[in-house]
Amino acid sequence: MDNETTTIKGIFADMLKIVNIFENREVLRSTYTPDYLPHRSEQVKALATVLVSALRGETPSNVLIYGKTGTGKTAVAKHVGQELERTGELYGVSSVVIYINCEVVDTQYRLLASLARHFEKEIPMTGWPTDQVYTEFKNALDSSRRIAIIILDEVDKLVDKGDDVLYNLTRINADLKKAKVSLIGITNDLKFTEFLDPRVKSSLGEEEIIFPPYDANQIRDILQERAKMAFKQAVLEETVIPLCAAYAAQEHGDARRALDLLRVSGELAERAKATRVLEEHVKQAQEKIETDRIVEVVKTLPTQSKLVLLSAVLLGHQSDGNLTTGEAYNIYKQMCRMIGIDILTQRRVTDLISELDMLGILNATIVSKGRYGRTKEISLSVPTDSTRKVLFEDYRLKPLEGFIPPSQSKLYI
DNA sequence: CTTCCACGGGAACACTGGGGTG
DNA sequence: CACCCCAGTGTTCCCGTGGAAG
């Protein structure tokens, strides 16, 4: 930077260093559906065996697929679906595979609407009665002879909002004259059928396929497979893939996690202008993924939840760890008043706390303190200081920056 | 055995953003 | 245009309940 010659040298040196280590990083994204799925041939075969009857013009049984996150459920289902459609064309059998992620499409109305839209029906986002949408979809589907396979990913997300949709879908075949429907439900909640209407349960679970978690060796194979396409030759240190696999195996064999880890490691290496991906980068990536996730979650929390979290942060600071709902609620009320935000009822705040617990930001366990009643003992499960910083980025919470909660003595308001 | 605090299920309500109809 | 219907979401109200300290 000091004189001209070094600058020019610097430019070339830099340019040499910035070798793109990725060949195609899209391959490492979880949205990518590979053609070859290592260690899943058994499941692929099982699913294909069920669905093959579609090619013979019969209605395949409904299938329920179980397995934890990142065990390849979605990939297998999509893959087999594609194959089925392709083969169907060759044999002149008309089959449609519709993939729906119920985490996004999570209400009866929206589910039926997006199904109907697959058949070029115009359905408004809201407004219609649900059964009208249902009829619309049914008619569209029944307009020609075909077999429709509906893949419902994360189907457990749909259930608490009313399993009537599932009930209707499982019985739709009785109403159809030309077309036939079969359902593939995908869930990572093993107990999910317990809460299901028994009729839906038996019909949806005609066939069940279990996806066991991958072990470290299998994850390694998967990573190796994808790394071949994703990275340039020989840019990975030998230990990188085993390390990613080991980390992910600890998290109940989540392959998605492993792929993220590998991709982020690569990106970090690239950013550091390294020519190879080192073990070091994997360790950094592991940390980065976790903090990114937390920051992202906290940032996008609704204001009320942020306030609740903030009271936990402030109190947790002074009473080393555990505090009860009552204490947190008092502080919360105070802060609401200070910045002029509606005060929610304690009932609601309890729910917000439980939500934060679900997100892994808090730990809330119910304890009975005998004579002193029952409460939730709350402790933070994320670093206090950084959480605090993220919270105060919200302009509505800004005024509270200097707020120190009165020490735990008397708080009657 | 009583007593206490808050958990958590369920009903009811308010509100939003969109219909269709006279 | 006014008006009512519809699904979905967030909230409040009411209340039965758990369970160990006292």
- How would you spell out the order of helices and strands? HHEHEHHEHHEHEHHHHHEHHEEH
The end-to-end span amounts to 63 Å
The geometry reads as globular
CATH architecture of the largest domain: 3-Layer(aba) Sandwich
Share of residues in strands: 5-15%
Number of domains: 3
Structural class: alpha/beta
What number is the mean pLDDT?
Answer: 88
Regarding CATH, which class of the largest domain? Alpha Beta
CATH fold descriptor of the largest domain: Rossmann fold
CATH superfamily of the largest domain: P-loop containing nucleotide triphosphate hydrolases
Query: Mind describing the biggest β-sheet?
Result: 5 strands, parallel
Low-confidence stretches: 408-413
Helix content: 40-55%
Count of distinct strands: 8
Radius of gyration: 27 Å
How many helices? The count is: 16
Strand order of the largest sheet: 2-3-4-1-5
Give your account of this protein's structure.
The protein has 16 helices and eight strands. The C terminus is likely disordered. The termini are far apart. With 413 residues, the chain is an alpha/beta fold. 49% of the residues lie in helices and 12% in strands. The chain is globular. Helix 13 packs antiparallel against helix 16. The chain has three domains: 171 residues, Rossmann fold; 81 residues, Helicase, Ruva Protein, domain 3 (Orthogonal Bundle), CATH 1.10.8; 110 residues, Arc Repressor Mutant, subunit A (Orthogonal Bundle), CATH 1.10.10.10. A five-stranded parallel β-sheet has the order 2-3-4-1-5, with helices on both faces. Strands 6-8-7 form a three-stranded antiparallel β-sheet. The structure holds a DNA duplex (22 and 22 nucleotides).
